[in-house]
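Amino Acid Chain and Its Fold in Token Form
===========================================
Purpose: to set a sequence beside its fold so the mapping can be learned.
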Amino acid sequence: MLIDALAIIGGFVLLIWSADRFISGAAAVADNLKVSPLIIGLTIVGFGTSAPEMLVAVFAASGGNPGMAVGNAIGSNITNIALVLGVTALIMPIDVHSRIIRKELPLLMLAMGLMLLLILDNDLGRTDGILLMGSLVLLMWWIARQALHGGEDNLLLEFQEELPHDMPMPRAIFWLVVGMALLLASSKLLVWGAVNVATAFGISDLVIGLTIIAIGTSLPELAASIASALKGEHDIALGNVVGSNMFNTLAVLGIPGILAPSTLPQGVLERDVPVVFMLTIALFIMAYGFRGAGRINRVEGLLLTGGFVAYQATLYFTTVGTA
């Protein structure tokens, strides 16, 4: 058990560090190739922040634990909105000015609607996974088109400040390759430890994915959003979460559908999907800005954080507490 716990802790630490190195390397490579900062921020960085969830989903599904992958996808979305944005807004209220984020919020709602439509039969099949992944490709095309033809946006200015413009190409390629290699290794280590702990305590793969893994793989978003908000880069703080949730909904949930089609674990449709839908609707109402700039204030941040605590308590008393 000690080895399993060390595997989880070490996996998380290495996962977070390697994701940061991978994102820096990938962004610097693209910057050296003169790719638009907005495209880099919306696609490469967006992909990088969700790389931990995607790789965990790959190893969990391919190892015969699709419930862990499903829990990671849904749990990460819940954690991103309720914990990441909640804590960030408590520290620094988030003002939203980017028109691109205002367009991404309805798209996130559409992605959630597609997910619900596909899993209402309580199955996540290969066709469902392909449709989800295909929708992600269309989404990436739309984002790239907006970045190229949408004109100036406040998000562009914030990305220009954050991208590593002075990293030479050889060093950028080095961190890109090393970061990806360590991401693969740490994801496999984390899943191995989590499966062993779940087996030892009789906890379902779903609950492990919804709690330990979801919180751990969302730590990069938490750190990035808090840092961005403190520097006044509020659109990046929110954009990190919106982009990550799109990847989670379409890619992370699509992976177990493709690799390990299965019936959804008990509780997903009855408990977890309603929670993530309510939080996504709340995010849309708070951040869209129907009469000007959107804003997530401290009171709303407190409500989101309280909702996260209440959800974790519900999980404990309905599953872990009765295991």
Strands lie at 94-96, 123-124, 262-263, 294-296. The chain has a mean pLDDT of 87. The domain at 2-322 is CATH 1.20.1420.30 (A middle domain of Talin 1). The chain has one domain: 2-322.
